[in-house]
Amino acid sequence: MTTITSKVCIVGDFAVGKTSVVERFVTNQFSDKYLTTVGVKIDTKEIDLPDTDVRHKLVLWDVAGSDRFGDKEFAYLRGAAGLVFVADGTRFGTVDSALQLRGQIDERYGPVPSVMLLNKHDLASEWTVSEERIGELGLVFVDVYRTSAKTGEEVESALLRLASSIVEATLADAP
Ligand code: GDP
Ligand code: MG
């Protein structure tokens, strides 16, 4: 059994659901309690790659909101093999923030496989992000997902897709 370990950072504005998405993915639970993440919270999740004896250990860094992104937060992202951008579909401004942050991270560290999660899709009737905007996001990210940490919709698919892109990128880089 071979184990690949990858650092994955979850980024996006305040209250978009970063901590909830990680909790859904790692423990398959959702809590309505609102606890602000201070600094960074680290969780791990292991995935067995189908049809191989490879185990992929994801070390998930839940980094506090981008409204407070400074040198310290950027330092947390060092060495990330993949990024999860999260925005809140009911607040279109959080999509713009995610794109802006994407630009800043690319500039500092160069691009890495990244997925975009438009979260809170259980509140679809309150969404303020146009289909056109979602189409544009598709050009910038490996994939764009309409997720709900509350119902679990698409959370696992998004994270598994990112994990496989990381493996592909790692294999492509190998000598
Ligand atoms: P973070 O600041 O990005 O880590 O956001 P949190 O995960 O703490 O979530 C912020 C608030 O949004 C909390 O009250 C969550 O319960 C709520 N929330 C998170 N994800 C969802 C979702 O998919 N649907 C709904 N309806 N609420 C969500
Ligand atoms: Mg949080």
Give a quick summary of the entry.
This protein is α/β, with parallel strands linked by helices. Helix content is 35%, strand content 26%. The protein contains 5 helices and 6 strands, in the order βαββαβαβαβα.
Description of the structure:
The protein is α/β, with parallel strands linked by helices and 175 residues long. It contains five helices and six strands, in the order βαββαβαβαβα. It has helices at residues 18-27, 71-76, 93-109, 131-140, 155-173, and strands spanning 2-11, 40-48, 54-63, 82-88, 114-119, 143-146. A six-stranded mixed β-sheet has the order 2-3-1-4-5-6, with helices on both faces. The longest helix is centred in the last third of the chain and has 19 residues, at 155-173. The protein is globular, with a radius of gyration of 15 Å. The mean pLDDT is 91. The protein binds guanosine-5'-diphosphate (GDP) and magnesium ion. Residues 14-20, 32, 34, 37, 65, 119-120, 122-123, 148-150 line the site of guanosine-5'-diphosphate.
